[in-house]
Automatic annotation (TrEMBL):
The keyword Cell cycle does not apply. Keywords: 2Fe-2S, Iron, Iron-sulfur, Metal-binding, Oxidoreductase, Plasmid. Residues 27-134 form the Rieske domain. Residues 439-448 have a biased composition (Basic and acidic residues). It comes from the Bacteria. Residues 428-438 have a biased composition (Acidic residues). Residues 422-455 are annotated as: Disordered. Transmembrane segments: none annotated. This is Rieske 2Fe-2S domain-containing protein.
Length: 455
């Protein structure tokens, strides 16, 4: 359990809060690039870390992210005119550029220099991988953009989505680093009867066999390895044939996870706080997918009694069709006879349990077990960093640097181990599966026709 004081530190993210100040030191998704489809398009409201902002794409295609309330009299700039490289307030015509500078003040005398002394609060924006990222920390502490692989990702492979969750961000994060819940919340009766297709042996199992493993061993053992960027942990399960299946999930401080998948995975599930009571679940590809048949621990095809719109991912904002006010469309007869949860949509099963805790759960009431090791580790890293930053403004934070600080090499993985095989090399550059996939990708790029000069 946590003390109420530590629970407050963990969950509160607004300006001036210890955790809010930590999160502002990292480049953070502000919105999808597709939400601003072209120059001078309609502006978009953005609420991020408890701040109300407006995003707009100017005439040159540059994205501005500025305070929503006009510095003049507080009217919402969301209703402003996006024109000629600036957002113009509808109240008195004051115009602000992407840097927050007031570039026109037509309601003041032409001789006035007042506009040169007025600015809107603005945050820098960097587009990468289909996401517009921002840095909300002090200007003097800004860090280089953390490239998870999106900087060199071809635009045709950009696939970024987001889905809103109506609860505190930590509740969603705790589900992401909880490998045990898949054996319960996401289980269905037919998984136990899946026939062995020959892949229950050392090596890489089929996706459908992983469902069987989750059902067969519902009390996994957890092992954790601390890393320069956070930690990675293994969920070890015994398979029906007596082998050891390992699912390796990455935690990238402060709010990103890479969930286990066969043979490995680079897709991020990043939880971004809207405010204390709401968050966005961003999914984005960081590299060209190595495995088109499975991501995030759930098969991309329909297998079992689950809907799969969330797996057939398309770019954009994912609509919520399963909501608390409708009890997440739970079917009690299905719950009695077919699935453990009675909720048909896979992701909505997660939303049901995390949102049902209330907007901010009081962790002083909980009782944790051995399956919660990764959750405890994540909380400890976050709280320790928040307290350190509060005590010393120059305190180093996790995941800003490291001896080999290459964020492109962080990968989740899933495999059945050989006798005596150490799971820790899986998903690293030493993993033959990684080497084989990257060699195949290089060969594919070499075979691709290059554009002719002048094209």
């Amino acid at each position: 359990m946590l003390s109420q004081q530590d629970n407050e530190i963990l969950t509160r993210v607004g300006p001036g809060t210890p955790m809010g100040e930590v999160l502002r030191r990292y480049w953070t998704p502000a919105l999808l690039s597709s939400e601003l489809p072209g120059p001078d398009c309609d502006p978009v409201r953005v609420r991020l870390l408890g701040e109300n902002l407006v995003a707009f794409r100017d005439t040159n295609g540059r994205i501005g992210l500025i305070q929503e309330n006009c510095p003049h009299r507080g009217a919402s700039l969301y209703f402003g005119r996006n024109e000629e490289c600036g957002l113009r307030c509808p109240y008195h015509g004051w115009k602000f550029d992407a840097d927050g500078a007031c570039v026109d003040m037509p309601s003041e005398p032409p001789s006035s220099s007042f506009k040169d002394r007025v600015r809107a609060r603005a945050y820098p924006v960097h587009e990468s991988g289909g996401i517009a990222w921002t840095y909300m920390g002090p200007a003097e502490t800004i860090t280089p953009f953390r490239d998870f692989g999106t900087e060199s990702l071809p635009e045709k492979n950009h696939l970024a989505t987001k889905l809103q969750s109506y609860c505190n961000w930590i509740q969603t994060m705790e589900g992401n680093v909880d490998t045990a819940h898949i054996s319960w919340l996401h289980s269905w009766d037919g998984a136990a009867d899946i026939e062995d297709d020959g892949s229950d042996k050392p090596g890489y199992p089929s996706n459908k066999m992983t469902w069987k493993f989750w059902m067969h061993d519902r009390a996994p053992q957890l092992e954790i390895e601390e890393t320069w960027y956070g930690f990675r942990y293994a969920g070890l399960r015994e398979t029906p044939n007596g082998h050891t299946n390992v699912r390796i999930t990455e935690y990238v401080f402060p709010y990103s996870t890479i969930i286990a998948a066969v043979p490995y995975n680079t897709r991020h599930l990043m939880v971004v706080p809207i405010d204390d009571n709401n968050c966005w679940r961003y999914n984005f590809e960081a590299t060209v997918p190595s495995n088109p048949q499975g991501h995030g621990g759930a098969p991309l095809f329909s297998f079992g009694p689950f809907e799969t719109p969330f797996t057939r991912r398309v770019g954009g904002i994912t609509p919520r069709n399963y909501l608390a006010e409708a009890d997440y469309n739970i079917d009690r007869e299905v719950q009695r006879t077919t699935t453990f949860s009675g909720v048909k949509d896979f992701v909505s099963q997660d939303l049901m349990v995390t949102e049902s805790m209330g907007p901010i759960y009081d962790r002083s009431q909980e009782r944790l077990g051995t399956i919660d090791k990764a959750i405890i580790r994540m909380r400890n890293q976050l709280i320790r960093s928040a307290k350190s930053l509060e005590e010393n403004s120059d305190a180093p934070l996790l995941a800003l640097s490291g001896p080999d600080a290459d964020f492109r090499k962080i990968r989740g993985a899933d495999k059945i181990l050989e006798e005596g095989e150490d799971w820790r090399y899986l998903g690293t550059d030493d993993d033959p599966a990684v080497q084989e996939a990257e060699e195949a990708l290089r060969a594919s790029e070499e075979r691709s026709p290059q554009p002719a000069a002048g094209d």
